[in-house]
């Protein structure tokens, strides 16, 4: 199965997927990385791993639909069967989401359905949460609302800051994202 990854920044989850997909028995291959920011550091990492890259700035397009149609053309040129969102910081329109329904997944830094949206670690700390984590889920039209494939939990510890908490969770993100993609690509996980 051929997988494209959409990023906007650092790309550490992307790197974890690239690394996992190197295993000979992994059921998916990473065929391209697309960023909506040309300066995303993850693009360098992908290129250094010999993976095709592209960047498309939404601001250069007259509408979100035209931006997303062009993204689709790039993904199709790579022959992508699946799309992984990995720190892609744009909300996707309904046409794009429907086109990839059941074949597009995202990693979100909270135990969904808790803390959809941004600044999840700040909000969990402000609430005095004792547990926090991350979720890999199918992308559906509602933001951060699709069914979960895998979750990982971590404790919130005394003295935690958004940075220490996010670092603890990132380790788990890098573990569960490759495992969730493996489940999707092997047919073990499917959108009902
Ligand atoms: C991760 O925390 C991910 O959960 C969120 O955005 C961040 C991306 O980090 N969606 P990276 O670019 O994968 O390093």
Automatic annotation (TrEMBL):
SUPFAM superfamilies tied to this protein: Formyltransferase (SSF53328)
Family per similarity comment: Belongs to the GART family.
Annotated site, Raises pKa of active site His, chain positions: 144
List of residues binding N(1)-(5-phospho-beta-D-ribosyl)glycinamide: 11-13
Gene3D superfamilies associated with the record: Formyl transferase, N-terminal domain (3.40.50.170)
Keyword Transferase set for record: yes
Active site per the UniProt annotation: 108
Positions annotated to bind (6R)-10-formyltetrahydrofolate: 64, 89-92, 106
Formyl transferase N-terminal domain residues: 1-181
Class of this enzyme: transferase
Stated name of the protein: Phosphoribosylglycinamide formyltransferase
Organism this protein belongs to: Devosia salina
Keywords, ordered alphabetically: Purine biosynthesis, Transferase
Catalytic reaction equation(s): N(1)-(5-phospho-beta-D-ribosyl)glycinamide + (6R)-10-formyltetrahydrofolate = N(2)-formyl-N(1)-(5-phospho-beta-D-ribosyl)glycinamide + (6S)-5,6,7,8-tetrahydrofolate + H(+)
Entry GO MF terms: phosphoribosylglycinamide formyltransferase activity
Pathway: Purine metabolism; IMP biosynthesis via de novo pathway; N(2)-formyl-N(1)-(5-phospho-D-ribosyl)glycinamide from N(1)-(5-phospho-D-ribosyl)glycinamide (10-formyl THF route): step 1/1
Keyword flag Transferase: yes
Role of this protein: Catalyzes the transfer of a formyl group from 10-formyltetrahydrofolate to 5-phospho-ribosyl-glycinamide (GAR), producing 5-phospho-ribosyl-N-formylglycinamide (FGAR) and tetrahydrofolate.
Gene: purN
């Amino acid at each position: 199965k051929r997988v494209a990854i959409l990023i906007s920044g650092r790309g550490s989850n992307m790197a974890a997927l690239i690394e996992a997909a190197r295993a000979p028995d992994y059921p998916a291959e990473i065929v391209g990385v697309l960023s909506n920011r040309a300066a995303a550091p993850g693009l360098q990492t992908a290129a250094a791993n010999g993976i095709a890259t592209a960047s498309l700035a939404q601001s250069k397009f007259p509408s979100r639909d035209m931006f997303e149609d062009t993204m689709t053309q790039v993904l199709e040129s790579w022959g992508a069967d699946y799309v992984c969102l990995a720190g892609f910081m744009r909300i996707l329109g309904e046409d794009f989401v429907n086109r990839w329904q059941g074949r597009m997944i995202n990693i979100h830094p909270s135990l969904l359905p808790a803390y959809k949206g941004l600044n999840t670690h700040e909000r969990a700390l402000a609430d005095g949460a004792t547990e926090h984590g991350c979720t890999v889920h199918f992308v559906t039209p509602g933001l951060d609302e699709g069914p979960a494939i895998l979750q990982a939990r971590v404790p919130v510890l005394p003295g935690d800051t958004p940075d220490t908490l996010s670092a603890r969770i990132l380790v788990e993100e890098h573990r569960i994202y490759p495992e969730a993609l493996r489940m999707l690509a092997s047919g073990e996980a499917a959108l009902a």
